[in-house]
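Same chain as my last thread, 207 residues:
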Amino acid sequence: MGIVQSTLAERPASKIAILVRSRTHLVEITPLLKQHNIEFESLKITPLKDHLLTRDLFSLARALMHLGDKLAWLSVLRSPWCGLTLDDLLVLSADDSQIIYAQLTNEKTLAKLSQDGQKRAQHLQACLQAILDNQGRFNFVELLTFAIDQLGISRSLSQADTLIKDQFLSIVNTCEQQQSLDVETIKAALDELYAPSETASVKLMTI
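reply #2:
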């Protein structure tokens, strides 16, 4: 750790690579870097599919592709840009006679949610209705991008998360251009990629 600190002090613009033999060694290294407020990134260590933002974006894409995908819609409603409580989610998941999205416009169902949950659910529904109304008029990646903007997701993202969002949209766009836009194809593409590089001075890499 002393070598890293002295190198950054002497040459602030330099890039430092820390090589480890396995991911288990990172358990000892990363807490020390955080303790000393040293920004770092992991190269080819964090699979893109395992990133929380990727999971949330994938759920949003699945929900827009398939309105009947109950798990995807519950994930969207639980995500940071909606934030329903578990109690509210239980109310929406209890009725299998209607798809989740239809329940967001059902006054009787909404009345069973908490007051905060009602506002959040109605906001999400209002944001996504315009996207659903324009299906068939625009490419799916354009609709997904618009949905992300409407929900205000981009405004709260860090630089690293913005890179992940852009990479996810690039995957969706590639799948669509190749006429292979479906859940399994996107999932397969995510399995092959790692979270994109950030701008931190210290790089952690496995050998």
